[in-house]
Amino acid sequence: MSSLSENPTDLDRTDPSGEVFIRAEAYRNWGRWGEDDVLGTLNFIDEAKRVQAARLVTEGVSVSLAQAFDEDGPQRGWKKRNNPVHTMTGTGLDHERDPHANPHSIGGADDVIMMPLQCSTQWDGLGHIFDRGLAYNGRPAGAVVTTRGDLVTGIEHAASVIVSRGVLLDMGRHLRPETGELEDGYAISAEDLNDCIDAQGSSSQVGRGDILLVRTGQLARVRRNGWGEYAGGPAPGLSLSTAGWLHRSEIAAIATDTWGFEVRPNEFDESFQPLHQIVIPNMGLTVGEMWDFEELGRVCAAKGRYEFLLSAPPLPITGAVGSPINPIALL
Known about the structure:
- Keywords: Hydrolase.
- 24% of the residues lie in helices and 18% in strands.
- The protein is an alpha/beta fold and 331 residues long.
């Protein structure tokens, strides 16, 4: 019998549909911001929240939270997700060969990049995942995302929105202080999240409009040992049982340093990314993946401070269901 228990051990591992659907119904935000809403939980970020976040910048320390976008990235071709292909269309060599080709011998370089929008540090937009034929806010999936893109909740709508207070919960350091890294397959529970907040102190309190960053330490491990199955393989991550916690907290968005945000293998005998199915199309939660929290984790641990101004706008790619980003934490 499915329940809303927040203990991962209470999940019925033989009934993914039951466990997903009961939470989808319980934590659904359809209509909360009106039938025309396209932002979901990003609506929790308001002017007052941004003013609060801006006041957190006291030292001018800036940390990029992006992985590199290059051919040495983690992708292995699943769902045609390849690493970026970067090509120069003009080079210094071209200029040297004919330095006088242009007026007053000016030269220049140009380049082009081809890549899936979810090949490295990125946001999942609200049109990325569907649930039983429906997209966020109860719209028919086929009326939202077509061959022309996401016609309703395209990522461009969030272009000016995602600037807020960021909070780092360093689950790796908290749960595994000896290594700073959670083992693959570890399911982070609501209790784990609360315990980390208590341990890290008052700057880790999570509330309405915040962007929650969860460091597992997996990225540090794969950088040391090689990518392996980082893209889609086993990983630490959030348990399905945290859905209620995520809904209650009224966070605007969440991001992790893993490929898929939730624990892998997933917590059921036969399933694929069940927490995505709850939080994106039902809760309207924007999800970030493959962020780099290594430098931020060191800075926060040294300062004993885990809150900062976070600027992480997507590229305004019309109709996209995701976007590459270079998030910046300012302390």
